């Protein structure tokens, strides 16, 4: 089986409606012109990544404006859409949430970001996520044919155990919509994608917004797809573009057969008992 994945690295502007129109136009191109059957948007794709702006665009799932737009696009173009992430309002709390829409326009999965980021590798924290969001507490997977896909959002990519849990659940593809600043991206973006792919012998997709040098947090860009050998299949520039790659799923079984590390794990040694005599 082959899945043609399109990562939509769109430029985010100040007007939510313009971002939604841009996203829908690019989903159409990804399906109609590039023949993708799975389309991925970036983290917080419908608004600039600042605390005030994110609060302003919060909406309920699935009733909100962004969800309706993604559902219609998935149905109209007959494609799976991983809707990056949006700010979800639920029960008086805000979540950084990824929605996935099937080709019939149905909501097939919802994932709330588990690991919230307050780090400031670049020297400043643009959004203190723990002050804005409530963390999720569950893994989320969905299937395309026989392929199980695991979801994370941005900072989740740094947690090796999280990705390994998805591999244990049977995932062959891990998708991380993300907003990563330029200094962090230059040091860790590709390295993390390769590490998660190689450790777990899965395909890995990181999807970023396009770079905007006037933004408060300037996105790194360079969305990329990595195969189970740790090789970069496709990589974007920093500009708005669509990156497409064919994921040949039998590569997963080939890698796992030739390098059977999950059969060789010594899980009896890995759990440390802190404080035991």
Automatic annotation (TrEMBL):
GO cellular component annotations of the record: mitochondrion
Catalytic reaction(s) noted: 2-oxoglutaramate + H2O = 2-oxoglutarate + NH4(+); 2-oxosuccinamate + H2O = oxaloacetate + NH4(+)
Keyword terms: Hydrolase
Pfam annotation, one family: CN_hydrolase
GO terms of molecular function: omega-amidase activity
GO biological process, alphabetically ordered: asparagine metabolic process; glutamine metabolic process; oxaloacetate metabolic process
EC number: 3.5.1.3
Catalytic EC class: hydrolase
CN hydrolase domain mapped to chain residues: 3-249
Name this protein carries in UniProt: omega-amidase
Organism for this UniProt entry: Anopheles dirus
């Amino acid at each position: 089986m082959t899945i043609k994945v399109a990562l939509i690295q769109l430029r985010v502007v100040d007007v939510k409606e313009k971002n939604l129109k841009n996203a829908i136009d690019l989903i159409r191109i990804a399906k109609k012109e590039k023949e993708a059957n799975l389309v991925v948007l970036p983290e917080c794709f419908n608004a600039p990544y600042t605390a005030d702006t994110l609060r302003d665009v919060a909406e309920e799932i699935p009733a909100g404006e962004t969800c309706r737009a993604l559902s219609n696009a998935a149905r109209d173009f007959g494609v799976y859409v991983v809707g990056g992430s949006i700010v979800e309002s639920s029960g008086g709390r805000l979540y950084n949430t990824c929605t996935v829409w099937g080709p019939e326009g149905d909501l097939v999965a919802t994932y709330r970001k588990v690991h919230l980021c307050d780090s400031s590798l670049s020297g400043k924290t643009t959004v203190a996520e723990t002050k804005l969001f409530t963390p999720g507490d569950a893994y989320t997977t969905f299937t395309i044919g026989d392929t199980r896909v695991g979801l994370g959002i941005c900072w989740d990519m740094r947690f090796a155990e999280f990705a390994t849990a998805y591999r244990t659940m049977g995932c062959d593809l891990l998708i991380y919509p993300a907003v990563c600043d330029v200094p962090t991206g230059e040091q860790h973006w590709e390295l993390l994608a390769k590490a998660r792919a190689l450790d777990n012998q899965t395909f890995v997709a990181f999807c970023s917004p396009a770079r905007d040098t006037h933004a408060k947090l300037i996105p790194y860009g360079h969305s990329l797809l990595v195969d189970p050998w740790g090789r970069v299949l496709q990589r974007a520039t920093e500009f708005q573009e669509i990156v497409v790659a064919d994921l040949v799923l039998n590569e997963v079984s080939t890698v796992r057969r030739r390098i059977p590390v999950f059969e060789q794990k010594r899980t009896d040694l890995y759990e440390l008992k802190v404080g035991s005599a």
